[in-house]
UniProtKB/TrEMBL annotation:
Gene3D superfamilies: MFS general substrate transporter like domains (1.20.1250.20)
Keywords, comma-separated and alphabetical: Cell membrane, Membrane, Transmembrane, Transmembrane helix
Membrane disposition: Multi-pass membrane protein
All residue ranges annotated as the Major facilitator superfamily (MFS) profile domain in the record: 15-407
Pfam families found in the cross-reference section: MFS_1
Protein name: L-fucose:H+ symporter permease
InterPro entries hit by this protein: Lfuc_symporter_FucP, MFS, MFS_dom, MFS_trans_sf, MFS_TsgA-like
Molecular function in Gene Ontology: fucose:proton symporter activity
Location, primary (coarse class): membrane
Gene name of this polypeptide: fucP
One of the record's GO cellular component terms: plasma membrane
Chain segments annotated as transmembrane: 12-32, 52-72, 84-101, 107-131, 143-166, 181-200, 234-256, 268-288, 300-320, 326-346, 358-377, 383-403
Compartments (UniProt record): Cell inner membrane
Length: 410
């Protein structure tokens, strides 16, 4: 009889709790970027397609930093990798002060790029870090659990932006002082967390991906000498992650615009609904973590991708609250996609696991290209722009539906 694998071990509890906090921290930064997108349209008087360059700055950093972060992690370990990520995160936040003083969109994009280099480093490190804190058979559950707290951060981000930025804007203080003050405060908090993490002792870890049982209860050991890119499930995971984050970046970038233009909500109220949609994403991750005990992760991923194709069609029709409800529900079904694609891509990569994590994180660069593209359509009709993410969810569906076959052809 096979015993049920544990979620994690007692010795990893403290480290897992702290690394899970990292997921929350970059969730705050990601969704704050979407609030800034709308704020810059109003204050710096730029178009929707130009404001999409905010996402280009954020997600573009992943394409630049993915491999260097992975090499740094491989050379210096998980702990040093986390410290580097927090350092870059804090530096980027502090750069908002001179950018606000100069009232320059270009300087803000530079600050966001540096900050996002920190986020890319944290993501590159944190995902394999969490995966290594226990049995590979429960790595999907651990990653979805940790990503649920990324959802908590995602809720905090737009709420902070609504209260400190968009609310101030509604009071006719259309300047960048509130942006500067908020990000300097964030930089201070991140710096303190970095100091505290340096005091935590990380146990000696053995990578569970070297030789173990796969997610379908079939004994499988990586073939000796197999090259990283000979693993078809890994290559397709990079592609799926690219389109996954492309859909996320575009959907989030124009959420507030959709609420304002289709339902005539204030920007602050639309941001509050955005926070609620991220709350549903958090619920979706907890739900997904539970369902994966009974449904294979790849199968559940395919179901959720199909649901989001339907949601995008409804959103594009601009049917008032019905379409806005579908827009909110996109985040519920989006919930499990990032961590599940990540975990499925890392299965049985053996000694290539850390390097593989770097490439999958680089797939996040997809979020850099879709928002400006959606913005070109959103300049004329924000509802119709939501037809574009259907392509992304179709790619994810194909990856998930064919995952078992891809695994057998490594």
């Amino acid at each position: 009889m096979h015993s049920q694998p544990k979620f994690t071990e007692l010795q990893y509890y403290i480290v897992l709790a702290f690394v899970t906090l990292l997921f929350l921290l970059w969730g705050v930064a990601m969704t704050m970027g979407d609030v800034l997108n709308k704020h810059f349209q109003n204050v710096l008087h730029i178009s929707k397609s130009s404001s999409g360059l905010v996402q280009l700055s954020i997600f573009g950093a992943y394409g630049v930093m993915g491999i260097p972060a992975g090499l740094f992690m491989k050379r210096f370990g998980y702990k040093r990798g986390v410290q580097l990520g927090l350092l870059l995160y804090a530096c980027g936040a502090f750069l908002f002060a001179p950018a606000a003083n100069a009232q320059s969109f270009g300087y803000f994009r530079l600050a966001l790029f540096v900050l996002a280099c920190g986020l890319a480093t944290l993501e590159t490190v944190a995902h394999p870090f969490v995966a290594s804190l226990g049995d590979q058979r429960t790595s999907d559950q651990r990653l979805n659990f940790a990503q649920a707290f990324n959802g908590v951060g995602g809720i905090i981000g737009p709420l902070l932006g609504s209260f400190f930025i968009l609310r101030a804007e509604a009071g006719h203080t259309n300047d960048l002082v509130s942006v500067k003050q908020l990000y300097v405060a964030i930089g201070i908090v991140i710096s303190i967390i970095g100091v505290l993490f340096s005091l935590i002792k990380v146990p000696q870890l053995t990578d569970p991906h070297v030789s173990t049982v796969d997610g379908y209860s079939t004994a499988e050991v990586p073939k000796a000498g197999t090259k990283l890119f000979h693993n078809r499930h890994f290559v397709f995971a990079i592609v799926a992650q690219f389109f996954n984050v492309a859909a996320q970046g575009g959907t989030w970038a124009y959420f507030i615009n959709y609420g304002h233009e289709v339902l005539h909500l204030s920007d602050a109220m639309a941001a509050n609904y955005f926070a609620f949609s991220i709350f549903l994403m958090m619920i979706g991750r907890f739900t997904g973590t539970f369902l994966m005990r009974y449904i294979a992760p790849a199968r559940l991923l395919a179901i959720f991708a199909a649901c989001n194709i339907i949601m995008c069609v409804v959103v594009s029709q601009a049917l008032g609250w019905v379409s806005f409800g579908a827009l909110i529900m996109i985040n519920f079904f989006f919930s499990i996609m990032f961590p599940t694609i990540f975990s499925l891509g890392l299965k049985n990569l053996g000694q290539h696991t850390q390097q593989g994590a770097s490439f999958i994180v680089m797939g996040v660069v997809g979020g850099a290209f879709f928002p400006p593209l959606m913005g070109l359509i959103a300049n004329k009709n924000v509802a119709l722009s939501y037809l574009l993410p259907i392509v992304c969810y179709a790619v994810i569906f194909v990856f998930a539906y064919n995952y078992k076959r891809l695994r057998s052809k490594a």
